[in-house]
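Worked Example 4.2. Consider the chain below.
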Amino acid sequence: MIIDKKVKCLNDYLEKCTIDGVFPGCVYALIDNNDIIIKEFGYAQLIDKKRPMKKDTMFDIASLTKVVATTTTVMMLIEKGELTLNTFVKDIFPNYTYDNINIKHLLTHTAGYPPEPKYDGSMNKDDIINLLLNTESSPETFEKSVVYSDVGFMILGIIIDKITGSFKDFAQENIFKPLDMGSTCFEPNNLSPDKFASTELCPMRKRIITGTVHDEKSYLMGGTAGHAGLFSTAEDLSKFVIMLLNNGIYNSNVIINEKTIELMSKCYTQELNESRGLGWITKGTYKAMGDLSSNESIFHTGFTGTSILIDRKYKTGFVLLTNRVHPSRENRKLVKLRCNINNIAMSCVTNNLV
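Applying the procedure from the previous section yields the following structure tokens:
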């Protein structure tokens, strides 16, 4: 049950965050089983044109792409027999540098890759693909440490492209369409800028980014990539959360199997420096998930100021979409407050009211 007075506490806290400059604006979705509360605060844009945030504002969800689109698609391809966790990248791309890196390494950030490839702004998609397939894996960190890396998920994106013919189309037809996520897509090129939360005043593009992907690497790849590029709304992402909480079922349609969710949500890095499932962060000691989420929770964030927290034990979820990088990525106030916000959100829901 969602508790009204606790929701007021969450609303007051997030409104204060907009006043204090933690982010210009936000939209959240609080999910308890199939009940959803969606609320907006602040502004979608401050520079050039001041626009208020709306409940249906579309956000560049940045690295939430990794779990909403990429991880989900990989798990679907495993269900279809196209991949296994032990499939080697070299089996898919014979010209790949390494013969010992597999799908599980990429999903758990244990492939030994650096956080980013050494790209430059003059590269195109083919250049970046070639760069990815030749990026050096460190033997010091391979299987020995979790190093959060865009490289691994960018490689997963091109693997999906090769197997399905189009990552963008596969995700649309197999995830977003059956979940009625009508405002979720890659490359939303034909929509009015007023529909979007603006992100950064981009040094590379010399303008405020609105309605095109913020991440430079995804931009150079055309806007669809395994690590970033997806746009969505709080309402759409709440449907995705409900599907995972309902063991892969949405409106009587099986999107992914319950066993697949179990496989995805368990920790594979117990002895390493971070607690990682397949794509998702598992509870462990990751402080941003909050103190009140259970040990069965999974979580992920996005660079632009987005996050999804799913507590599988208590059947609750919390989606927070902000534009904290508008107008500059130097604003990092949200990072320190994620734990506080998630605690308040999780306190809004209880299964044990007397």
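Residues 57 and 196 are 5 Å apart (CA to CA). The chain has one domain: 4-347. Compare this with Example 4.1 before moving on.
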